[in-house]
């Protein structure tokens, strides 16, 4: 039996140090696009972007990722750790699709050179 796996890319719209850093262009592409392309090339069956930004959501979908929800604002603050973001995604998938992955790969979009 094949494992059910997802890549989860957390990409919030706000940033105090570098505004819209996930949308910043690097060599002609938005920064987040590199992470999505890496996950696609790795053959991951589901690539989900968790974001609070409609603009990031649109770019994610255009690059081949799923963005099935907008992350609540309370989970998109500077002080929010990773676990509540992961939990929100997993809860969404279970409640809306009845789907629970066996493996979750957490890919930060601010590390485009993998």
Number of distinct beta strands: 5
Q: For the largest beta sheet, what order do the strands appear in spatially?
A: 4-1-5
Q: Label the overall shape.
A: globular
Q: On the 0-100 scale, what is the average pLDDT?
A: 95
Strand content: 15-25%
Q: Which residues form runs of ≥5 with pLDDT under 50?
A: none
Q: What is the quaternary state of this protein?
A: single chain
What's the story with the biggest beta sheet? 3 strands, parallel
Structure description:
The chain is an alpha/beta fold and 114 residues long. The protein is built from three helices and five strands. The strands form two sheets. A three-stranded parallel sheet has the order 4-1-5, with helices on both faces. The termini are far apart.
């Amino acid at each position: 039996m094949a494992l059910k796996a997802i890549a989860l890319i957390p990409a919030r719209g706000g940033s105090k140090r570098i505004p819209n850093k996930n949308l910043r262009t690097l060599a002609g592409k938005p920064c987040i696009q590199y992470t999505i392309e890496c996950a696609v090339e790795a053959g991951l069956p589901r690539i989900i972007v968790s974001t609070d930004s409609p603009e990031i959501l649109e770019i994610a979908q255009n690059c081949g990722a799923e963005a099935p929800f907008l992350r609540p604002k309370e989970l998109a603050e500077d002080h929010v750790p990773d676990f509540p973001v992961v939990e929100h995604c997993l809860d969404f998938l279970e409640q809306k699709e009845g789907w629970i992955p066996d493996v979750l790969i957490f890919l930060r979009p601010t590390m485009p050179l993998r």
